[in-house]
Amino acid sequence: MGTNNVGGTLILYDDDYLKQRVALAIDASSHGGFMQLEDNSSVVRLSANAYIEGFGSVLFCRNSDGVAKSWIAETSGVINGETIATQQWVVDNFVPK
Predict the structure, then answer these.
(1) pLDDT surpasses 90 at 58
(2) Distance between CA 5 and CA 30 in Å, rounded?
(3) Is residue 94 a contact partner of residue 88, using CB atoms and an 8 Å limit?
(4) Does residue 78 register a pLDDT over 60?
(5) CA 70: distance to chain centroid?
(6) d(Cα 68, Cα 11) in Å, to the nearest integer?
């Protein structure tokens, strides 16, 4: 979970304190809620931030190495490294001006 939280942390374990699986906290930099979910190998596979500057709320999907490969925010996102082509993104990038 790290030390970048304020106001407390809730951690859920799988029958052993070394097997953390769920963590909830308040991020010290954004003062927003933060959640991370680990798989059975203790790798963070999903995380969510209630607020990230410039994006708002963001959900991250991570690979088996814990690297964020896909994410979705309030108005943008990426799937497996590819930008999600929202209607506004298409207008901004491909519609002749």
Answers:
(1) yes
(2) 10
(3) no
(4) yes
(5) 9
(6) 21
Report how far residue 65's alpha carbon sits from residue 26's, in angstroms, rounded to the nearest whole number.
Answer: 24
Residues belonging to the chain: 97
pLDDT of 2 above 80? no
Kindly tell me if the per-residue pLDDT of 5 is higher than 80: no
CA 17 vs. chain centroid, Å, equals: 23
Rounded to two decimals, the pTM is 0.81
Q: Beta strands of the chain (E only): which ranges?
A: 5-13, 20-27, 33-38, 44-52, 56-62, 68-73, 77-79, 82-83
Nearest to 31 by CA among 4, 2, 58, 66: 4
